[in-house]
Amino acid sequence: MNDWYERSMKALALNGLAERSQQSYTRMVRMLVDFYGKTPDLITEEELQEYFLHRKTVTRWSGAYMRICYCAVKFFFVNVLERKWHTFDYLRAKREQKLPAVLSLEEVRRVLTCIHIPHYHAFLSTVYSCGLRLEEALSLEVSDIDGDRMMIHVHRGKGTKDRYVPLPHPTLAILRKHWLSHRNPRLIFPAPGRDRQGAPKAVIPMPKGSVQEAMRNAKNAARIHKRGVSVHTLRHSYATHLLEAGVNLRVIQRYLGHSNIETTLVYLHLTQKGHEDAAQIINQLMEDIGHGNN
């Protein structure tokens, strides 16, 4: 399998997929190989169909997970093994219409107040106030912070797309204070190390798992019982709060780094502000019509 693994990784890299996508695609192919216990070149199209049905009806993978599975396996078999099978022409996984969790402004304040370890507080404050993805924030470097223009240059965004996002003055102050605590020459959020003394010379960011655990602990301490709250919830909350404050949806799309406006439109479903405004306008119109008939 090592030969196929190396060829797969090379093809994924040449295709320009992000590192996380490369890892996800490779993991899906490994799961297929482990399921049948033989190298992928020996797997038939019929066996592949049976595998997909098993994952869908027996393992009961979600629509999102099945989409990753389809894309990963199709990419491997088409581009590495050069199998032009008809099965790949009709694979579909139904998209789940689940809305993400969103915190109110007060809930965000409560969560951040419950984070007492300084580097976690600085990190999660930055995630919320700049609408960053977890990996984007972890990858921030000193050179990405433009204090003169009050912007953050996101170099390592999803899909390897660069963008600029506004940097609030309070967040800049938080980042400066945090950086002075470790003075790492490159990383904003370096790994502290087991003894918490390794940050100045660290060459890798803080572990993702430790940040996620800090968020979970803060959520529980803040007595927030909403389901699905995670670090990414801060990004959803950022977008929703901007929308409620009257920021144009196209501007929010640019700040979030969404390629498609349809992705950003989901935030219309997470706020009542537009509905309330519409209801008030309709009520006023009906009152005006009623007065006109008198």
The averaged pLDDT comes out at 85
Structural class per helix/strand content? mainly alpha
User: Quick one: biggest sheet?
Assistant: 3 strands, antiparallel
CATH third-level topology of the largest domain: hpI Integrase, Chain A
Any idea what the CATH superfamily of the largest domain is called?
Intergrase catalytic core
Q: pLDDT under 50 segments (min length 5)?
A: none
- The radius of gyration over CA amounts to 23 Å
| CATH architecture type of the largest domain | Orthogonal Bundle
Walkthrough of the structure:
This protein folds into two domains: 2-89, DNA polymerase, domain 1; 105-273, Orthogonal Bundle (hpI Integrase, Chain A), CATH 1.10.443.10. Helix 5 packs across helix 9 and helix 6 (118-130) runs antiparallel to helix 8. Strands 1-2-3 form a three-stranded antiparallel β-sheet. The mean pLDDT is 85. It is mainly α and 294 residues long. It contains 13 helices and three strands.
